[in-house]
Write a sequence for this structure.
């Protein structure tokens, strides 16, 4: 039984571990520069070069932030501008106003009879809680399908109940 290791193993072991560690670093660097993009397969992804283009972008972004801050933090008109901008943002993100039944029926009536002038007097349009009821008598079943489809396409309509029939 030997208690001492040969000299070449004691020297070679740390060198080999160092080479493996160095190789591992290269592999990790290689993995970070090779990637996948949709539709392009495997390709090298290189970092964007820094330079005057990045400095100009940074300068433009800083100027935009400064101008925006000056616009909204103006001592005389800043409060009015902030409230106006807040109102516009709320209007963008809020859902459409719900129409009452009479307004919804008028909206549906004007939309569906825009192209179907012949059937305007033969169809009654009512609305209850967002559901539109179409009542009446038409000659053509295809025209009934078109009216129902047009009524479903009107904003604010939750449902369409067709009580239309042919003679």
């Amino acid at each position: 039984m030997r208690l001492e290791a040969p000299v070449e193993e004691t020297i070679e072991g740390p060198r080999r571990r160092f080479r493996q560690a160095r190789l591992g670093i290269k592999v990790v660097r290689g993995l970070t520069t090779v990637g996948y993009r949709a539709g392009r397969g495997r390709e090298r992804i290189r970092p964007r070069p820094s330079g005057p283009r990045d400095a100009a972008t940074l300068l433009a972004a800083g100027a935009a932030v400064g101008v925006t801050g000056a616009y909204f933090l103006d001592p005389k008109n800043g409060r009015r501008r902030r409230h106006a901008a807040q109102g516009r943002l709320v209007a963008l993100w809020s859902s459409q106003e719900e129409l009452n039944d009479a307004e919804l029926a008028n909206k549906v009536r004007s939309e569906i009879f825009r192209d179907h002038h012949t059937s305007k007097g033969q169809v009654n349009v009512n609305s209850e809680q967002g559901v539109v009821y179409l009542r009446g008598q038409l000659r053509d079943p295809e025209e009934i399908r078109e009216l129902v489809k047009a009524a479903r396409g009107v904003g604010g309509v939750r449902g369409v109940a067709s009580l239309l029939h042919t003679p």
